[in-house]
Inverse folding.
């Protein structure tokens, strides 16, 4: 069961005005076969497939908990972007390496690059590769 399907079932069950909701009733509301509904919602209550008179309103708390857990799993990652202004600080890849990886003119082996630095380096390398391709075409 995926989160989207669970949300559809939860919405249909909560918006139903009936006090007692079975798979047959939900089938007429959603336009899905009752067997399919029973099979999918058996994720929350395994006996649902065997008992056609089971009240689906009892599944609301467990479906809600499942949706919350799925949403908690998907945390948005912070996207790091490198602007043209930041890239304009460096003329080329060696210039970047000199500014970021040296200390008093000596290569600092302990220097580490952040994710933003690595993305900037990747863009600089791609820029130089594109320039090489353009020169080769001429």
């Amino acid at each position: 069961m995926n989160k989207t399907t669970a949300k559809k079932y939860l919405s249909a069950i909560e918006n139903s005005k009936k006090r007692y909701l079975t798979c047959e009733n939900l089938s007429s509301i959603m336009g899905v076969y009752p067997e399919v509904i029973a099979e999918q919602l058996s994720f929350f209550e395994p006996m649902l497939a065997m008992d056609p008179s089971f009240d689906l309103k009892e599944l609301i708390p467990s479906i809600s908990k499942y949706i919350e857990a799925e949403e908690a799993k998907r945390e948005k990652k912070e996207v790091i972007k490198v602007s043209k202004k930041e890239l304009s600080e460096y003329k080329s890849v060696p210039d970047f390496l000199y500014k970021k990886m040296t200390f008093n003119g000596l290569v600092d082996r302990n220097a580490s690059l952040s994710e933003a630095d690595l993305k900037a380096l990747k863009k600089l390398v791609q820029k130089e590769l594109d320039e090489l391709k353009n020169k080769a075409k001429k």
